[in-house]
Write a structure and sequence with these properties.
Length: 274
Amino acid sequence: MIPFTKAHACGNDFLIITEEAAAKHDPVALTRRLCARNTGIGADGIEFFAWTGPRSGLVRLYNADGSVAEISGNGTRCVAAWMAEALSSPRGDVLEIATDAGLRICRINGVDRAHGFAVEVTTGMGVPAIARRTVRLAGGIEIEGAEVATGNPHFVIRVDNAHFKVAGKDWQSIGAGICTHPDFPHQTNVEFVRIVSPAEIEIRIFERGVGPTTSSGTGSSATAAAALAFDGCTSPLKVVAPGGPQTVAWNGPGTELQLTGPAALIARGEAWPA
């Protein structure tokens, strides 16, 4: 049997499994099976975790389709919640999580044990890189946006309507087309952003390896960085996804972006190996 913990951050859900527990299993096959919504446990991905110190660990992230991702901001925050629960972390505790996109420092801002275990976490997300870019889709449709790197790749598109349509098409189909576009040989995450006010934006997310999802930490970070750089928004910026809000603070090029949001443990259990 394989012990797991399920957690979510704004509805973006992950399984946390230790490297030791998964050592004898193919991570791709295991991830696909356990993340299946109807025949498995159900999740957007698995964070395979190993302790590296008293308050530090490393993770390998596999998306639901079995592909490897450099990092998930929400997944990292879920791992921080799992670590905080294991360590009985107080408010103000600092945890270190090594990802394939680099080290992430997570500060526990608050702990809620009233209904299970939940935390609010601020994570240093690294220094984003941003550039304007145009992608040409089938049929000659040109989509203008911003290419943003937050440890993993993103393409951010500004919209001017509440349905997040682009060129008369729904955001899900545009997202699928850009995600797998030849311009992005390793695929890309795609975000659609509507400016609500200088202090608030609303987003929709098409996640590489997952599809439409309720939230994304790196996606919220990337979209906020683009809105702060190009759309006159101000820091700290509230980023509202279908799964709930997160807050991004960024002082501009060359500085590290800070992402703040919740994470909660949902359940523990054991899964049969394949």
